[in-house]
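Lab channel / #folding
Pinned by the channel admin:
"Please post every new chain as: sequence first, then the structure tokens as a reply. Keep commentary short and put observations after the output so the thread stays searchable."

First post following the new format, from NK:
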Amino acid sequence: MLLRLLTLCLVLLMPASASAQTFEDLVARLPDGNFNDRAAVVSAIARTGDPRAAAVLDALLDGELEQRTADGRMVRVSGSRSNQTATDILTGEDLGPVARRSTESVRLNNGLRRTIRTALGVLTLRDPDPARRLAAAEAALRSPDAEQLDALTAALAEETTPAIQRALGLARAATLLATEAPLAERIAAVELIASAPAAMVQSTLNGYRASAEPDLAAAVATALEAAASRQAVWLQAQNLWFGLSLGSVLLLAAIGLAITFGVMGVINLAHGELVMLGAYTTYTVQQMFRAYAPDHFGWSLAVAVPLAFLFVGLVGVAIERGIVRHLYGRPLETLLATWGVSLILQQAVRSVFGPTNREVGTPDWMSGAFQLGEMTVTWSRVSIVVFALVVFFGLLLLMRYSAFGLQMRAVTQNRPMAANLGIRTGRVDALTFGLGAGIAGLAGVALSQIDNVSPNLGQGYIIDSFLVVVFGGVGNLWGTFAAALGLGIANKFLEPWAGAVLGKILILIFIILFIQKRPRGLFPQRGRAAEG
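Reply from TO:
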């Protein structure tokens, strides 16, 4: 019994005695004692506020802090095992190469590592860099430690940045719950934490759900219930955003097909491979930027967009002039011919680029994400949604206000009359097919940012594209727009309870039943395709 009391007294007195020593003395004591002794010294080092403390604790956490056996000097050892060099951890003096067995490392365990991370968090609470202060506050919130309470309180009193103030307040509240503070203060802390994002509320308060204090347990239960309700609302908002994002991808993939299939009545099974060509055009452009203009890589997509449109559009014109124009009015032969073209294009890409996936980079301006309420939104998805809308409305303007759009609509609605009025219907057919192919190339540019660029890229979108065009109404761009967004949203709302595969099957069954009732889709189009 006496031995236990002595041990307890030593543990309790260790921080006090350590804190009375100088920073240099504390660093020299790190190799001594057991793991609990080292944890007390680590906490004392953090409390000194010495500007060298972070470097010492970083080296210790990385396993690079060692003691020279010759003179007991604490050094940071870095480099490969065969070429290690030492640096004085206190002065930064370069001590040159390290001989074998001339130093002994400071041993760590998981508990000591946690203590070091906590101490580093305390040290950075007053860092001049706001980003580091915010990261320290968030780290303190994730791992509350009663010993941090005074440091958090002092940092909160001095902080002037609102976002960091809020993070420090939440961290202090979570830390307060881990202490024996008065019940009223802990209940107030629960109420403050309840205003945080739902996931944070749950992770912080779940451990106090079964508190022995009824008032505290009731406050925790109320906060968790409110968080669960809020989380359910944001989950639906997230499903809606994911649905709009998927819908924009479907719109990009289907809008070109709405031109070739909807307007011209051509069943183009090579449409997916035209999307693939757009993705490989993006890859080729980025390879050129990496080789010749790496500093301007952020412009690679801006260059890839017009090149993909022109290149894939020319491929489309070649397909129409060489194959499709000889098969108008024979849908089965057109289907088989374009299927053959798709196989040729796939094999050509395999021969040139190989069968494996190719890396397409994301420019800095499309990287990262931001918080919208309790939902994380990635900039890449936002960019694709905006790009899809720009392509769609640009196509609408082209078809409504340009001479080419007028001729296209005239040929679609009444080909013989358009020919009699002097419109060169063959030229319109070629340019229309090229336009649809070029838009498929634009879809490939966008899809290269979210999908694997491989010879099989287009196969994953060809069926969905046909479903969108048929469901929306053959030849109607607004129908394609409504069908793409509607099917995308429906898919994402079905996935959580039906699963991805069953959700797609249910949507397919719905479209089949819908087409049985309305064969011309949501918005039927007048003209040659509808009459056929």
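NK: Residues 1-19, 527-532 have pLDDT under 50 and may be disordered.
TO: also worth noting, The chain has three domains: 16-111, 127-212, 234-363+380-531.
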